[in-house]
Design brief:
Layout (H helix, E strand, L loop, with lengths): L4 H4 L2 H8 L7 E6 L5 H6 L8 E2 L9 H12 L4 E6 L4 H13 L5 E4 L13 H11 L3 E5 L13 E5 L13 E2 L12 E2 L8 E6 L9 E7 L5 E5 L10 E5 L7 E8 L4 E6 L31 E7 L39 E3 L19 E3 L4 E5 L14 H18 L5 H11 L19 H8 L7 E3 L3 E4 L13 E10 L5 E10 L4 E4 L2 E7 L4 E10 L9 E8 L7 E7 L4 E10 L4 E3 L3 E11 L7 E6 L15 E3 L5 E6 L5 E6 L8 E6 L17 E5 L15 E9 L6 E3 L2 E8 L3
Parallel strand pairs: 1-3, 1-4, 2-3, 4-5, 5-15, 15-18, 35-36
Antiparallel strand pairs: 6-14, 7-13, 8-13, 9-12, 9-14, 10-11, 10-13, 16-17, 19-21, 20-21, 21-25, 22-24, 22-26, 23-25, 26-27, 28-39, 29-38, 30-37, 31-35, 31-39, 32-38, 33-34, 33-37
């Protein structure tokens, strides 16, 4: 299933015309979760090898839908993911990890935290700034909170104006929303603004507010229905928050309890300020609801325009019809944005460290203004995920924009953030009103126009393939053994978009008792999508350890920006034994600590194996069921989707067996993790419980066989969410060694 945005953004045309597909670029998403990742990979809607940060799979499927959009537009880009949920701290940590650990070139998210300040870069925004300073690119959804041009805004910001009045019997002076001679201390909410989160921020630094403001919700009878009255006395955030009620004719009031007048922002998320039904109260709105990391100075904040059919429901009763998109045609200057897309600009008063940008001026004449959003992209597109078919919102627009930037970077790998910014904004199609506007930014982006601006050259990318090993000396059997030589047919594969010229391969071994001749070989030219093999000779000394695999380190150079590449291939030494040896753990049940990343560990000692020719791991049990606290299963645990299981070899290498799979299903029993299995355990569903059978682990177990198997192995199970509990009861390692030479 392909996003309609691929057509409306002319990405399909751009790929064909410029012969670029995302090669050499890694695009990573942050959202809720990737519950259906394995299912999407099974249908071909996502590729194998999506790099999910360990333990950061999250919960939900908006992340899967975002990745599908990216893959549709840049099918050969590498993909990564980490959840944006849990907290601002973990979100910021994952932003940094995707760049500095996972090596993501372009990062995109669709999350806003209510506690992200509109007036100062908080932790997520600081992480975005770090990514950009390191040469990365960051895209973020502008939000779905409405805008003043469409009359869908629930935002007011400006200078506090003392009305001289209070709210009920509460202390403090209420703000006067009426800019004229009249006085109005209430901001009326629309009939559909029920149970909406409402935040109040004012222009003080994070953790340093000594001006105390409060927020009040008033019902139809004029009574205070709710309030937020946190104390600000010098070391607090300038922040109040509440949720609106369920009644009609609700309104809000902002009160300065004590301190100085400040510029402030009042926002009802996905709600709206409208005149009261009786006409006694007028709604006052201002642009600028976009805030937080999406408004970071170097980030691309992305607005939304429909690609195909309109949003199938009214945002509020009585609204005009929602706009439709151009599919199967492309976006033009006549395209119309979504009525819910959030607007800018964003006024910032403080640097990230809390120092004032304009000391002494914290009013509408102070600070600095950032023009947000920058660009507009498609939403309302199909994915294979049932809850996101179609996928509306700026959450869908942001990954389209990120993928289009990835096309440009793939065809011109040296582009800087400033160059991408100039090209994206300069080639965007201006939407009404004329010129830059705070609803759609510079306009809707088109991949064909962007690549025409930046230029694009198909890039080669040559990687090492799996060799064919043929013994040429020794006892005449099919196995390479100590003291023997073998011909290694080593393929170099051009997975890139352009022809690779001047391809040269250099091979080294990880042991002086194994040598390769010749060490360097010229492969000439390799066409895009083609491979070429050259024969090398691998020589093993007589004293080379039986069963120890030879790791060949391969460096490939070629003409192109993506050169060189490095990889490793492993050559087996010895004839695998036919005897499988089992090493079981079956001690007293070990409780798995709830919501504790350290988890619980159990060890098994292995001896007499030497190097292993094969390794499988099983979670055992005598009888399988979904019963709570069952004593007959290998792991009894309600909601198996809380669990992460890892296996650590004696040399310290670690493989993740399973990670947050199985959702609400109970218990693992007679589960075998085997590299040769066809189905990944990551694809299990709650309905598959109790989880049993043979499955492919998250990480290959083969990586644990490069050192001797003898020693202590450790199995760790960690619970990464609250509420559900269980125990580790039984597991085994199954190892096969080698026949004597």
């Amino acid at each position: 299933m392909v996003s309609e945005g691929d057509r409306t953004h002319a990405a399909d045309t751009a790929r064909t015309r410029y012969k670029v597909t995302g090669i050499g670029v890694k695009v990573c998403a942050l959202s809720d979760g990737v519950d259906s990742l394995a299912a999407s990979q099974a249908t071909g809607d996502l590729p194998a090898g999506v790099d999910v940060l360990t333990g950061q799979e999250g919960s939900g499927d908006e992340g899967t839908a975002m990745l599908e959009i990216i893959h549709d537009l840049v099918p050969n880009a590498r993909l990564g993911f980490a959840t944006a949920f849990t907290s601002e701290v973990s979100f910021a940590d994952n932003i940094r990890a995707l760049r500095f650990t996972a090596g993501c070139d372009i990062i995109v998210d669709d999350v806003v935290y209510y506690h992200e300040s509109p007036f100062q870069d908080g932790l997520p925004a600081q992480a975005v700034n770090a990514v950009i300073a390191d040469g990365g690119f960051y895209f973020s959804s502008a939000g779905n909170e409405g805008n003043t041009l469409d009359g869908t805004s629930g935002n007011w910001e400006g200078d506090f104006a003392d009305s001289g009045r209070g709210i009920g019997k509460f202390a403090g002076q209420a703000h006067d929303f009426d800019p004229g001679p009249g006085v109005q201390v209430f901001e009326p909410l629309s009939p559909n603004s029920l149970q909406r989160v409402t935040s109040l921020w004012w222009a003080d630094p994070l953790g340093g507010s000594a001006n105390d403001y409060d927020l009040y919700l008033i019902d139809a009878a004029g009574n205070v229905a709710d309030f937020s009255q946190d104390t600000q006395d010098g070391d607090d955030d300038p922040f109040e928050i509440l949720r609106t009620g369920t009644g009609s004719n609700q309104k809000l009031a902002v009160v300065k309890y004590s301190g100085a007048n400040r510029y402030f922002q009042l926002s009802v998320f996905r709600g709206r300020f409208t005149d009261s039904p009786d006409g006694t109260l007028k709604a006052f709105t201002t642009p600028g609801i976009t805030r937080g990391h999406s408004a970071a100075v170097g980030a691309f904040s992305v607005a939304a325009a429909p690609a195909a059919a309109p949003l199938p429901f009214d945002l509020e009763d009585g609204d005009p019809a929602n706009p439709a998109g151009p599919y199967p045609n492309v976006f033009t200057r006549k395209s119309t944005p979504e009525r819910f897309t959030s607007d800018g600009p964003r006024r910032i008063f403080y640097n990230a460290d809390g120092t004032a940008i304009t000391p002494g001026d914290f009013s509408s004449t102070g600070g600095t203004v950032r023009n947000k959003p920058e660009i507009t992209a498609a939403d309302g597109v199909l994915t294979s995920i049932p809850d996101f078919a179609p996928f509306f919102g700026t959450s869908a627009a942001a990954p389209h924009a990120a993928a289009i930037a990835a096309l440009a970077l793939s065809g011109n790998p040296g582009l800087t953030n400033a160059e991408i910014r100039s090209a994206l904004t300069g080639s965007a199609l201006d939407l009404a009103p004329t010129g830059y506007d705070n609803r759609t930014g510079n306009g809707v982006v088109r991949a064909d126009l962007l690549l025409r601006t930046t230029g694009a050259t198909p890039q080669p990318l040559v990687q090492v393939g799996t060799p064919t090993v043929t013994p040429t000396t020794g006892d005449g059997d099919a196995y390479l053994e100590p003291g023997e030589n073998a011909t290694v047919a080593l393929p170099a594969i051009n997975i890139g978009d352009g022809t690779a010229t001047g391809v040269s391969v250099v091979v080294d071994t990880d042991d002086s008792r194994a040598t390769v001749v010749p060490r360097a070989v010229s492969y000439g030219s390799i066409a895009a999508g083609a491979s070429k093999s050259k024969n090398l000779t691998l020589k093993l000394a007589a004293g080379y350890p039986l069963g120890r695999p030879v790791t060949l380190s391969v460096k490939i150079t070629f003409a192109g920006y993506l050169s060189p590449t490095a990889g490793t291939v492993v050559v087996t030494v010895g004839q695998p034994s036919a005897t499988v040896r089992d090493f079981a753990w079956g001690g007293a049940p070990l409780p798995i600590p709830d919501n504790d990343p350290a988890g619980v560990s159990a060890t098994v000692d292995v001896s007499g194996v030497g190097y292993a020719s094969s390794l499988t791991f099983s979670i055992d049990g005598t009888a399988c069921s979904t019963g709570t606290a069952s004593a007959t299963v290998g792991i009894d645990h309600t909601w198996a989707g809380d669990l992460i299981g890892t296996l650590t070899a004696p040399d310290g290498r670690v493989a993740t067996l399973f990670s947050r799979a199985g959702a609400g299903g109970n218990n693992l029993c007679q589960v075998v993790f085997d590299d040769a299995a066809t189905t990944p355990f990551a694809s299990v569903l709650a309905d598959d419980a109790p989880f049993t059978g043979r499955w492919k682990p998250n990480d290959p177990l083969a990586a644990l066989r490069v050192s001797p198997a003898d020693g202590t192995w450790t199995f760790t199970v960690a619970d990464r969410a609250g509420a559900d509990v269980g125990s580790l009861r039984a597991f085994s390692l199954h190892l096969t060694g080698f026949e004597p030479a």
